[in-house]
Amino acid sequence: MSSLLAEMADKALKLNIPLSVQLDLTYRCNERCVHCYLDHDDHGEMTTAEIKHLMDEMADAGVFILTLSGGEIFLRKDFFDLLEHARRLMFCVKLKTNAVLIREREAARLRDLRVESIQISIYSHRPEVHDAITLIPGSLKRSLDAIRFLKSQGLKVIIANVLMTQNMQDYPSVRALAAELGVECTLDPTVTPMMDGNRSTVALGVEQSALRQVFRDTSLVGNVDEFCAIPPPAAENDLETIPCSAGHTACYVSPYGEVFPCVQFPLPTGNVRQQRFVDIWRHSEQMNDVRSIRLKDLTTCPSCSHAGTCTRCPGLAFMEGNMRGPSTQDCEKSFARTGIPSANMLAKKNAGASLRNANLVQIRALPTSVGTSPAGAIA
Amino acid sequence: MSRLYVARNPRVAARSLDGEMMIMSGRDSTLFTLNKTATILWQSADGTTPLDEIVEHRICTEFEVAPAVALQDAETVARELASHEILQISEEPIPPRNTVAGESR
After folding, report:
1. What ipTM is given for this predicted complex?
2. Which residue, A17, A273, A313, B24, could crosslink B13 as a Cys pair with Cβ 3.0–4.6 Å?
3. pTM
4. CA A57/CA B68 separation, integer angstroms
């Protein structure tokens, strides 16, 4: 994040303004990715008029960054009509798409409308791996063709590479492909449970040993010793910090008008079909509950060695059953990074009284004046 | 002396945050923030109101400043913003573009 944008985010936080919103236009999709957290049926999407009205309300509420996602956004026949409306309202528009439906004409239209960036999911440089994840033969070729069309129009493209056991070994080649195409590449080792709570998708995620390998790749994390160091103890002000921007300067709206703190945080806070967006943002009991949480209020995390450096996701914690509890997936990331189990992992082991893992102990670093934080290459 | 006209460039992204505009360049996504005076200039830049009228009716009424000095400053700011493709300036009124005409909020 640029320093000016960080400054704006601080200001928005103080003023309780939703600076950034992800709006999913549809859950329908032309791919069937094995790890997807959505169902792909239409349960009554908002109409064109409803979405335009919502955009008007969001602009009035101060939303600046509008991410349009899905499902596959280009399946909406009114997509360009909605995008034009969004740009007329001067949103900074980012898109998330599989790009299968983007050809030269669509790329040129996106350039004319000055979309800020287009994030495209690429799972592997090999069709047999990528297409086996999307379950659509030929999808890698279509997506890569689209990236070339978009690049030829001078647009900013970001490849999003979700890491799973199925494609884990291919990420260096995906990054090389991104470099060759002249686009950015982000890596995300987190596979989220489905929005209905079904956790079967989580099993597709990379294993500890693979995650450890990723966290020791200098091309991703820079200085491995620093990145994987024993975490420094949490400072007192760390315990007063907010977990992330969800519900503070950002939120998510589903195709049915439901408002949530984040796409990864399925706590319903209201519906724009019944209430004004700004009223949900400001007055929803659930949104204000999320806002009230500080690190010191969490059940297990304040006493954890990783408290000051953990990337705990409150949404994943919510899906585990308690938004004030730990997120085991993030505990596992901290463990893979440093080799030190989290307080949550220890508590679970103790509860299970397993002797097999009796070597799990927490190690705390001596207090230092210089803190370290995880590098930003990995989401 | 010819009059100057200013218009918001519809290619940028923009939003008012606590009375100050944050603007993202459509050229390279650089983020800018405008101070209160530049924000008034931006919000008044409809392409049809001459800059001297904007200064007289919107800026001099808000700030204690001599009109001639204010106009000179406003011209400098307008040219600076135009160099970043945030504003368009012309000696003729600027019609709205056919693509998307930005609404200032």
Report:
1. 0.88
2. B24
3. 0.90
4. 40
